[in-house]
Amino acid sequence: MTTSQPTPTGEAEAENTLAGIGEFGLIARLTEGRASAPATLLGPGDDAAVLAASDGRVVASTDVLVAGVHFRLDWSNPEQIGRKAAAANLADIAAMGAVPTGLLVGLACPADSPVDVLNGLTDGLWAEARSVGAGVVGGDVVSSPTLVLSVTALGSLEGREPVTRGGARPGDTLALAGRIGWAAAGWAVLARGFRSPVAVVSAHRVPEPPYAAGPQAADAGATAMIDISDGLLADLGHVARASGVRIDVRTAALAVPDRLVDVGAALGIDPMHWLLTGGEDHALAATFPGDVPDGWRVIGTVADGEPDVLVDGRRYEGGTGGWDHFVR
Q1: Bridge pairing between strands 224-228 and 148-156
Q2: Which of helix, strand or coil describes residue 25?
Q3: Cβ of 52: how many Cβ atoms within 10 Å?
Q4: φ and ψ at 28, to 5 degrees?
Q5: How far apart are CA 134 and CA 7, in angstroms?
Q6: 167, 221 Cβ separation under 8 angstroms
Q7: Helix, strand, or coil here: 173?
Q8: What radius of gyration, in Å, describes the C-alpha atoms of the chain?
Q9: Cα-flanking dihedrals φ and ψ of residue 261, to 5°?
Q10: Is 49 helix (H, G, I), strand (E, B) or coil?
C-alpha cells in the first residue's frame, strides 16, 4: 500500500492560478456545463461559433473594460464585473432595436490571476447573457500585465429595421426607459471610501438596462435611439449631431429619486448633475413621432436648429456633459 505525498504549498497555490492550469485548462473550466442559448447552433470548442440569424442580418457591438479604468476589484466582486461587462454590450444591441443572441469574450490577464476571479467573471458574463436569453458562444484568453475584458455582443433584428442615432426629426418627442444617475452616484460614494447606501453602490457595480424596451421602441416607430453609457447629455449629443437636430431636455421631467437626493446632500453634490451627466446605467433614450410606449417617459423635445443639446432651453453650465476617455 502506498500513500500519496502532500502537495507542496507552492504547487497548490499554482494550481489555483492561470499559470497553474494553463489557457486550455481555464477554457475547459469556464465552458464546462454551460447550456447553450436558443440561437446558438455551435458553441464554444471549435474554431468559431455558429449562431442562427433569422432574417439574414446580425447586429454587433464591442466594448473593452480595463482594470483600474472601468472597474476595480476592491469595489466590485468578479461576478459583478462580469455582469457589468456583458450589460454594457447587450444594452447596445437593445439600443438598435434588436434582441441579443450571444457574447464573444476576449480575456487578457496576468499569469498569476486567481482562477476563482476568472470563474467569477465568467459566471457574471453568463448570468447577464442568460437574463436576455443569450449565452457566451466563444472567445480567447491571452497573457497581459493588466486584466482586460473585451466583450462583443451579437443580436437579431427579427425583421425590424435598425433604429440608428440619425433618424430624429423636428417635432419628435424625446423619451427615456430605465434609470439614470444611479451608477454615477454609486461611483461618488465608493470614491469617498464608503460602501453604502447599498442600492446606490449596487447600481454602479451592476447596471440594470431595460433590454426589452429597445425592441419595444423599434416596434412603436422610434426614429432614433441610443444607450446612455457616457451620460444623458453626452449621448444625446451623438443623436443631435447624427440627426442634425436640436434636443431640449426638461429637468422637470427628470424626477430625482429620494435616495439620490439623500446621497447628494451628504456629499455636497446636486443630484441632478448625476442624472444629466452620469453614465453606466445603460438606460435607453429614443425619439418618437407620436405617443411613447408603456414604460417610457417623456423627458424632452426635438426641434430644428443647429445640432445641440439644451437643458431647459439653455446650454448646461454644470460642467462636462459626460464621460470621454481622452478628455479630462
Answers
A1: unpaired
A2: helix
A3: 12
A4: -60, -40
A5: 41
A6: no
A7: strand
A8: 22
A9: -60, -45
A10: coil
Q: Residue 158: what are its φ and ψ, rounded to 5°?
A: 50, 40
Cis peptide before 44 (omega within 30 of 0): no
| Measured distance CA(129)–CA(86) in Å, rounded | 7
The dihedral sign for the CA sequence 233, 280, 127, 125: positive
Q: Are 203 and 301 in contact (CB under 8 A)?
A: no
Which pLDDT does position 318 carry in this prediction? 78
With contact defined as beta carbons under 8 Å apart, do 147 and 106 qualify?
Answer: no
> Which residue type sits at 184?
A
What is the H or E stretch that residue 309 is in? Answer: strand 308-311
Quick one: DSSP state of residue 5? P
**What pLDDT digit, counting tens, does each position of 88-125 carry?**
999 999 999 999 999 999 999 998 989 899 899 999 99
Residue 235: closest CA among 275, 271, 269, 203: 275
Show the low-confidence residues of the chain (pLDDT under 70): 1-15, 18-35, 319-328
Residue 123: the pLDDT is 94
Q: Is 106 helix (H, G, I), strand (E, B) or coil?
A: strand
Please say whether the beta carbons of 101 and 134 come within 8 A.
yes
What is the spatial distance between Cα 39 and Cα 197, in angstroms, rounded to a whole number?
Answer: 39
CB within 8 A of 322, min separation 6: which ones?
230, 231, 232, 233, 234, 235, 237, 277, 279
Cell numbers for 43, please give them. 458553441
What pLDDT does residue 168 have?
Answer: 98
Largest CA distance in the chain: 88
Do 284 and 214 form a contact (C-beta atoms < 8 A)?
yes
The count of other CB atoms within 10 Å of the CB of residue 192 is 9
